[in-house]
Amino acid sequence: xxxxxxxxxxxxxxxxxxxxxxxxxxxxxxxxxxxxxxxxxxxxxxxxxxxxxxxxxxxxxxxxxxxxxxxxxxxxxxxxxxxxxxxxxxxxxxxxxxxxxxxxxxxxxxxxxxxxxxxxxxxxxxxxxxxxxxxxxxxxxxxxxxxxxxxxxxxxxxxxxxxxxxxxxxxxxxxxxxxxxxxxxxxxxxxxxxxxxxxxxxxxxxxxxxxxxxxxxxxxxxxxxxxxxxxxxxxxxxxxxxxxxxxxxxxxxxxxxxxxxxxxxxxxxxxxxxxxxxxxxxxxxxxxxxxxxxxxxxxxxxxxxxxxxxxxxxxxxxxxxxxxxxxxxx
Amino acid sequence: xxxxxxxxxxxxxxxxxxxxxxxxxxxxxxxxxxxxxxxxxxxxxxxxxxxxxxxxxxxxxxxxxxxxxxxxxxxxxxxxxxxxxxxxxxxxxxxxxxxxxxxxxxxxxxxxxxxxxxxxxxxxxxxxxxxxxxxxxxxxxxxxxxxxxxxxxxxxxxxxxxxxxxxxxxxxxxxxxxxxxxxxxxxxxxxxxxxxxxxxxxxxxxxxxxxxxxxxxxxxxxxxxxxxxxxxxxxxxxxxxxxxxxxxxxxxxxxxxxxxxxxxxxxxxxxxxxxxxxxxxxxxxxxxxxxxxxxxxxxxxxxxxxxxxxxxxxxxxxxxxxxxxxxxxx
Lengths: 330, 330
Prior knowledge:
2 copies of one chain form a homodimer. Chain A is of the alpha+beta class. Chain A has helices at 50-53, 55-59, 62-65, 70-76, 84-96, 114-123, 135-148, 160-173, 194-206, 213-227, 229-232, 238-245, 280-293, 302-305, and strands at 5-12, 15-28, 31-36, 42-43, 180-182, 188-190, 192-193, 251-255, 259-264, 269-275, 311-313, 319-325.
């Protein structure tokens, strides 16, 4: 616990108000290039590992058999915000499988998308499982499950799909999984070291579509995310806005409790970071700072500016303080 | 920064996922009774000091001249959630002063109260300044300003009201203020040590309505908060639910960036705590643990159970983990 390194500070007036410590690793072809905090810390990657969880979907041939588009593959790696386009896309996906919303096992929550949230409120409708930020991943799970002719309880840890995900996870991280927890969407989430996650992201970054089956699957998922950023999160969200700002050259993904990963194909680098207290504002600022440092994100881009350390304003637009990077981090 | 002590952990499965460090002080008649982390750390108390900011309102005679009720005094110390009852009460208060919503200087934000939020969305209405969680405090500010015959820009740091608040702050904390920041509601927020805030809370706790003017004002504000908990926050919120659970015997107040204070009249104790990373979930768990330990909150009460370290469930009601107190804290 004590090895987390101060990374991001919140200042108000001329005084430090709050601060966030964490861990980060940049992984290259030869191993760790640079790290902060403890690269060996064991974390739950949460939604940041959805592209790993989607590997069996592609590698089994299920994605091709179902005729999935890159847009759907991006959605299978998404924590979307339940906007109309996400709800329509997942609804049609299930229809194509001959399944329905009730076959999902992710549960329901109010969508993060304000337009869709307001539409539901005006109509007096309750959110359904399609609104769950993980419904795209679960559509991918159902597609793979159907292809495997496996049972409907696809989130149980001993289901053939979850066993395949565990195996893929161990292969790409180079580690035996360190147990698992149940995620917000009821799927098992396999624990791993932050270094293992960074190593996996490096494999995704370096994968070529002319390589072996694993490489082709990785490159396809990575490029689907980078070129369909609107499917991976949604308007106003960090993943979508930052991937757009990087022009499809880099894929990034957030996870609950302040995990963030990035895949940089040109540099063949993978990044994984975790803020120890789960503070998303700090994870976003830290990943932006790393992407700027590595030269793939233009610091003057409005979407970078929005999350870079800088000025914070209150409800009346008055400057109150801002985020800063802590001494010793970058 | 390094002296913050681990206080609250989030576990998932059988593994620590995230953790929060912070500072806490219990202050008694003779000084600090017990502390964790660094009692001398300088913090912004944010909304946790609203009862201090309300002292000039009562002590100047403005509250009595305007015929304010205890319900209104509770609202002057509130971070309310903009529910219908809060909007009505602040609207009528301003009307009684011959003022209107445009005289407020707090800005607008979407109310936290779901019913009121949904009503606005259905009606196609925008939130107004009455919905701002600080509008009750600002009504108190306007009442005091009117009584002082001071100018309308009552949130400027050199306005007579803010100078009176600065003086009261220094008297109750026993410290010279360590500068100030601009709060979310545009009012100055004076920095102080956590120990100074705890000391102030002890004065509020020990104040008698038979004492001097300062004591009577403190007792009146404290008791107004404890006996009108619905005005201090709102349904579902920690301050309201926990004060109800303690049956009006203890007053508590949260502040942004994970500050929490408590005033325990029977024990003549004050509590102040700050989670270093600003994580509200940890501040709530920590204050509940302290109130239980001091014997004023029944740990089996549903409102305590809701925030005590324990089980956390996901969207489908499946147990995923829970909060725990860190070793060495309580």
